[in-house]
Amino acid sequence: MKPFITLMSIATFILVAAHAVAADSSILTLEEAITAAVKQDPWLKGSEYSEEAIMANSVAASSLPDPVMSIGLANLPTDGFAFDQEPMTQLKAGVSQMFSRGDSLDIRRKQLQELAKQHPIMRQDRIAKTTLTVSMKWLEIFRAQQTIALIEQDRALFEQLGEIAQASYSSAVGKVRQQDIVRAQLELTRLEDRLTKLHSQKEQATAELLEWLLDDQTWFTNTQRYQQHVDLPAKAPTIPRLYLNATKELENGNIHILAELLNNHPAVLAIEQKIEASNTGIDLAKQQYKPQWGVNASYAYREDDQLGRSRPDFISVGVTFDVPLFTGNKQDQEVSAAISQTEAIKTEKRLALRSLLSQLQSAYAAHRRLQQREALYQTDILIQMSDQAEASLTAYTNDDGDFAEVVRARIADLNARIDALNIDVDLLKSQSQLNYFFSDEPSIANTRFGEK
């Protein structure tokens, strides 16, 4: 598996986000936005810290508890508090060491290491989700920018139509009426309203994108300024298709093969890693049936008696262990809880797989319909709309048409081109969605982005 985590190891970092949007004339490509978002994502760094913490705990968990030292004075007589008065008086120093039940230390270490292995997989899924999220927000900005360009391009034509109508009306040439002049001005006003709305959408989408691109300090100090300067390329990006190997299965709706493919998705693999750690937890719970052992040793010093005769010192050695006899309310229940926890996580995996499969089928169905609409617009609708607009204008200039019809045809042509743009953008968005489901494939950052 070649996961999205390879984004983190790109030899030459294309553009840090703050630099990408700092200049007034900067052009932020989709590739640069994704790379910067991954670089700036604090979640990835937090995941690395969590993994390091779990690994450190696994080392600590595999260590025996510290030995316990004890020092005491035993049997000191209270009538004189003399250390050499009674032969039972002793100064004792001891040490004791407890051992784990069975192989519980090694099993606990293994369980923590398995939990730590979940984090690299979770980071793969996070990068895949970040790629999808940033792509969606970038494409929304691109949609607004290109729609603005289309309207700006046609606004000059509507202004020219209005000037022609005004001149014809003033000279009483042709069939121009005052309502035609009003209609031309109305359409220009409506175009201005659409432009205002689109600028607002672009600014909102830019603010949402900058959340992923800027570090904390830049975000709080310069977000508003950067919103005015982020600009995107004029041509749509070419997004590599990571699902090509599954196209046949997607077309045929082969659920079983698609489910097998989705089993390699980071979101599913992360849950699978949790299942492995939970299975190890069952083995750990079973160790509670074994006794816990401990050893202790002590040395007792005795003073010579009051007549100067030597008294021998004492050495004591012992072994302690518990006997798990009544397991019904403790050990049995702990094992049962561990088994139930494992089954619950397995259910979580099945639900995640079903959800991914459903989302994949839905995204692919939408993608196919968008492809059909794109073909229809390119082969028929755009051509017909353009021909209709030209025909109505030709008829009007020959005094054989209505000015309102010219305006309607031009508006319809503009709307058709905007609809075609929306379809193209939606196709790129649906392609990004499909890529997410196959994020175990080579990452987008390792494939050259092009222009459409």
Automatic annotation (TrEMBL):
It comes from Alteromonas stellipolaris. Residues 181-208, 404-431 form a coiled coil. It is found in: Cell outer membrane. Keywords: Cell outer membrane, Coiled coil, Membrane, Plasmid, Signal, Transmembrane, Transmembrane beta strand, Transport. Residues 1-22 form the signal peptide. It holds the Pfam family OEP. Gene3D superfamilies: Outer membrane efflux proteins (OEP). Belongs to the outer membrane factor (OMF) (TC 1.B.17) family. InterPro entries: OMP_efflux, TolC-like. This is Transporter.
